[in-house]
Amino acid sequence: MAHIAPSILSADFTCLGKELSAVENAGADWIHIDVMDGRFVPNITYGPIIVQACKRVTSLPLDVHLMIEKPEAIIPDFAKAGADYISVHAETCPHLHRTLQQIRELGVKPGVALNPATPLSCIEYIADQLDFVLIMSVNPGFGGQKFIESSIEKIKALSDLLAKKNPFAIIQVDGGINADTIASVARAGASCFVAGSAIFNTPDYNDTIAALRLAAER
């Protein structure tokens, strides 16, 4: 079953509550929240206060993607704010196993995000600790980028790895997901699709989310 996760990075923040209600009513499954610190990625977004605000206006699970250095220092704040899923970048966690344990002990489902050039080998020995893996199919930091085609082979390889190590883990993909790319990503093994501009830059969220889901499940 396909999970569609609109990324609020592309939402209109002058009416964020209405935007969240609109995508929830349109059939979205998760809300994806990109947290950037201006250091690990060349952009700055928002912190726990936005997660807290989202929690007040939507019943959908909040999927918090931490594109930040030293995430372990602020993970408790995001958990307290209402995050249901938290992913950290393998590139920022020298003690990745410990960080995943920290997330789970706070009652949140842990995931690992991997940049386009990061090999799958870095999660091979902690795959059994994961609820999901986030494959970045663009270089993180900005919305609206073009999908990196080599991500397809990486998703296939991850699907094979998880089949052996953790078949219950979800493969999530973020970056350049739209009606043209989602089908091939789904066929490669992904089941959760983050889409920002492909949803929020369209006039009818109902039609857009339904079309994405149909393409992913075809």
UniProtKB/TrEMBL annotation:
Its EC number is 5.1.3.1. InterPro entries: Aldolase_TIM, Ribul_P_3_epim, Ribul_P_3_epim-like, RibuloseP-bd_barrel. GO terms for molecular function: D-ribulose-phosphate 3-epimerase activity; metal ion binding. Belongs to the ribulose-phosphate 3-epimerase family. Binds 1 divalent metal cation per subunit. The keyword Manganese applies. This is Ribulose-phosphate 3-epimerase. A divalent metal cation binds at residues 32, 34, 65, 174. Substrate binds at residues 7, 65, 141-144, 174-176, 196-197. Pathway: Carbohydrate degradation. One of its GO terms (cellular component) is cytoplasm. Keywords: Carbohydrate metabolism, Cobalt, Isomerase, Manganese, Metal-binding, Zinc. Its cofactor is Mn(2+); Fe(2+); a divalent metal cation; Co(2+). GO terms for biological process: pentose catabolic process; pentose-phosphate shunt. NCBIfam families: PRK05581.1-4, rpe. Pfam families: Ribul_P_3_epim. SUPFAM superfamilies: Ribulose-phoshate binding barrel. Catalyzes the reversible epimerization of D-ribulose 5-phosphate to D-xylulose 5-phosphate. It catalyses: D-ribulose 5-phosphate = D-xylulose 5-phosphate. The keyword Magnesium does not apply. The active site is at 34 (proton acceptor), 174 (proton donor). The gene is rpe.
